[in-house]
Amino acid sequence: MIVRQLNDILATDRDVQAETWTSRRLLLANDKVGFSLHDTVMKAGTETTMWYKNHIEAVYCVEGDGELEDLVNGRRYPLSPGTLYVLNGHERHIVRPKTDVRMVCVFNPPVTGRETHDDEGAYPLIIED
Ligand SMILES: CC(=O)NCC[C@H](N)C(=O)O
């Protein structure tokens, strides 16, 4: 069994800062559970374009307000506590938080550690044995 506290990973290697978000990586590939799980805060007033070509991501909003745009079809969705979206078609998309938006993010295959977005908004595919 793995038991962890968010407080114990703050300011460690599992606490990853990017310009528009902070990702606290509670579970990573080396935990060997088949997915990674992140407590992520997207910063108020920013815009992030993402395209997870190598991963499926599920995102569950637990705090804050914002907007999600699916760039495949131009549809926009409000983001508020209780909203789930899953990029099961590797959809290119934009998140626009109005306030800080806190999300629980799950990646399959799991993220390995310090990944941040490349120029296209993707993470590289790194498979660990
Ligand atoms: C919602 C979202 O994808 N934000 C970008 C950060 C990423 N999900 C992460 O926590 O690694």
UniProtKB/TrEMBL annotation:
This is L-ectoine synthase. It comes from the Bacteria. The lineage of its organism: Bacteria, Bacillati, Bacillota, Bacilli, Bacillales. The keyword Transport does not apply. One of its GO terms (biological process) is ectoine biosynthetic process. PANTHER family: L-ECTOINE SYNTHASE, PTHR39289. InterPro entries: Ectoine_synth (IPR010462), RmlC-like_jellyroll (IPR014710), RmlC_Cupin_sf (IPR011051). HAMAP family: Ectoine_synth. The keyword Transcription does not apply. Keywords: Lyase. Belongs to the ectoine synthase family. Pathway: Amine and polyamine biosynthesis; ectoine biosynthesis; L-ectoine from L-aspartate 4-semialdehyde: step 3/3. It catalyses: (2S)-4-acetamido-2-aminobutanoate = L-ectoine + H2O. One of its GO terms (molecular function) is ectoine synthase activity. Gene3D superfamilies: Jelly Rolls. Its EC number is 4.2.1.108. Pfam families: Ectoine_synth (PF06339). Catalyzes the circularization of gamma-N-acetyl-alpha,gamma-diaminobutyric acid (ADABA) to ectoine (1,4,5,6-tetrahydro-2-methyl-4-pyrimidine carboxylic acid), which is an excellent osmoprotectant. Transmembrane segments: none annotated.
